[in-house]
Write a structure and sequence with these properties.
about 270 residues, Rossmann fold, GMP Synthetase, Chain A, domain 3, 2 domains, 8 strands, globular
Length: about 270
């Protein structure tokens, strides 16, 4: 079992590395953009709505959890649905944080200097040099804000990663081989306990995603845990209707064997 998350900056060469790595290892590969498109398709959340809560400069109202956390869980559920035998390559900018409780994840940051990124953006998007610089700086600033808001850490903090590799100096092929070797080390560390932990985590995300699919329960302030199919939900809902719907929705999720629901109704339903 080896989940590889490739954290990237805008036009830093990470997508090419992911493609090479998927071919080298035979793992399924999923990009952030592909995951977002599937959330829009499968959960009835518009691309505009998803982008508002997960991208760009966060407004004051978006700085409380509610829908934002639900949408994050939807993205995570989509990612997990693409795993094959516990293997996955995901390339986006915070994949390593979505799997923060899974020790077997190989967390890699692929970087490139500004010269490399500016040239790539100019060539791919037909922008001037000044436009490319402004775009990269704005996207990087917004992403740093979101990571601080969602996870309370710095996106560029090297302690968040197992490997930091510079595509500009090492090249895509060398980076691919390095990551493939390290993925083998992670895979050898898999145990029955770690596989159970991943299954429980996956089920909890599926439950979150099912609740986010229904407008009435999309913004509930809950915590979900799973243990071999037994799901426990704590927290508060914004209405009696949402409170009543939660256990019904959870019971319908594939893999759930029992539900313990301790959700009440409260005005302060963000935690």
């Amino acid at each position: 079992m080896a989940i590889i998350t490739l954290s990237r900056g805008t036009f830093a060469g990470c997508s090419a590395v992911a493609a090479l790595l998927a071919k080298r290892l035979g793992y399924p590969s999923l990009s952030r953009e592909e995951a977002a498109a599937e959330v829009t398709r499968d959960y009835g959340i518009s691309a505009k709505e998803l982008k508002k809560y997960l991208d760009g400069k966060p407004s004051f109202l978006q700085q409380v959890p509610g829908k934002r956390l639900a949408y994050v869980k939807c993205v995570t559920a989509v990612m997990l649905s693409h795993m094959t035998d516990g293997n996955l390559i995901y390339h986006g900018h915070v994949g390593h944080l979505l799997f923060s409780d899974i020790a077997e994840v190989l967390r890699v940051r692929v970087i490139a200097d500004m010269k490399y990124r500016i040239r790539a953006l100019m060539e791919n998007e037909n922008l001037s040099r000044d436009e490319a610089i402004a775009y990269i700086e704005q996207v990087d600033t917004d992403r740093r804000r979101w990571v601080r808001l969602l996870y309370g850490v710095e996106w560029t903090d090297p302690t968040q990663y197992d490997l930091i590799l510079n595509v500009g100096s090492l090249g895509e092929e060398n980076i691919c081989e390095t990551i493939a070797y390290m993925a083998g080390q992670k895979d050898s560390q898999s145990t029955a306990e770690s596989e159970k932990r991943l299954r429980d985590f996956s089920l909890s995300c599926k439950v979150w995603a099912a609740l986010a699919k229904t407008p009435e329960t999309r913004g509930v302030g809950i915590q979900v845990s799973a243990d071999d199919g037994a799901v426990t939900i704590d927290g508060t809902a914004s209405s009696v209707k949402a409170e009543e719907m939660i256990p019904q929705i959870v019971e319908s999720v594939d893999g759930v064997s029992s539900v313990k629901c301790a959700v009440g109704v409260g005005r302060d339903w963000y935690w």
